[in-house]
Amino acid sequence: MAIISTMKDATEIVLSIYKNGFGIVKEKRELIIPQDDHMVQYLDVAQQIETESLLVNGLEIYEYSYDYDFIDKKKILDNYIDHTVFLHDKATNTKTECTLLSTKGGIVLENKHTKKIIINPSEELILPKLAHGLITKPALLWKVKSVQSKEVGVSYITKGLTWTANYVMELKENKCQLVGWINISNSSGTTYENARIKLIGGEVNGTADQFTYSLEHHTTLKNNQDKQINFCSIPALKYKKYYEFDSENANRPKMILEFDPYPLHSPGYPLPKGTVKIFQEDRKDTALELIQEGEMEYTALRKNIQINLGKASDVFCTWEKVDQKKLSGYDLEEYEYRIRNDRQEEIEVKMKPFIQPNGLIISSSHIYRRMSSNHIEISLKVKPNSEEKIRLRYRTDRELSAG
What we know:
Elements lengths: L2 E3 L4 E9 L3 E9 L7 E6 L5 E9 L1 E9 L5 H6 L5 E6 L4 E9 L5 E4 L5 E3 L4 E3 L12 E9 L3 E9 L1 E11 L3 E12 L5 E11 L7 E5 L4 E3 L3 E22 L2 E11 L14 E8 L6 E9 L8 E7 L3 E13 L2 E12 L5 E5 L7 E6 L3 E5 L2 E8 L3 E12 H5 L1
Parallel strand pairs: 1-4, 2-16, 14-21, 19-26
Antiparallel strand pairs: 2-3, 3-13, 4-12, 5-13, 6-12, 7-8, 7-11, 8-9, 9-10, 14-15, 15-19, 16-17, 16-18, 19-20, 20-23, 21-22, 24-25, 25-30, 26-29, 27-30, 28-29
């Protein structure tokens, strides 16, 4: 007779969930088995289990199978073919003993006493008991050779588990509120009671590109359930908003929201990549309005987070080459950038013009810093309804350019 183990016997469940649509289940269960060889029905496993990934500690198993022949009407009846069943006549309250001959195309019975054949009877069909070996849920069936302990550890990969991060941000005058939610989807085919959960970000190609987030509290994940779990809540973050021009956004800038997410009350680990919805209160009627929805990229710890709010419609940039000279062995070029602010407030602008990799800056109307071999960054303020000019002069070595 098989020994049955269910989720109720579990002493620990740990889920490692990946964004790629799968997870690793690791659990411990109390399992007492006599010393003789036995069959074990290990129930409440994921229906989408990858059986080739199974690891078992605490038992010596010499054969196992995965059964998912779940109960339905036909399967139950098929298990009673050539066995005794009963017809119950509700009008006379009598039972007739029959043999089930077939279920193909209908129910075919033979009356055990008269030997008459009955096809699709109108009477109630009564089955003596559930057929041996028929299971009601996914199960691992083990043939156990010996017992090493009273606790068994089981781990396996299953499909049907995934997670995403979502953020809600409310902008206020000088600070913002940030709330982060993890959405976990479970369609693996089983429920995980009181599980400890680890979330894995990045690609499955080595530990260097992966990031692990351990949720603070245990939780239960029911099958076919999406669950939202709060993992960060920061009530007052300082932020700044600026407009960024670069070679890809030469005329209309990107609006960038930048903040440091790691103050005293922050989670203390890198925030995962996710969708962010940004709200702001209307000054006229105090109603909350959705002003932007975007993506927050994964950012390493102690790095500021930047969110692209889209392109501005009231800040513009035009530029032109105002001077060019060819001298012995090198060229001199001068550019003028005009930044127009049509907003009713002062704005911060970050200008990132493209420079030839071998270009040497001779003069600049504004302080700059070198970002890479071919980009510099100029930060400046532009007053409301006004224009600011940037002059940039640099030298390019023709021999290096030709090489």
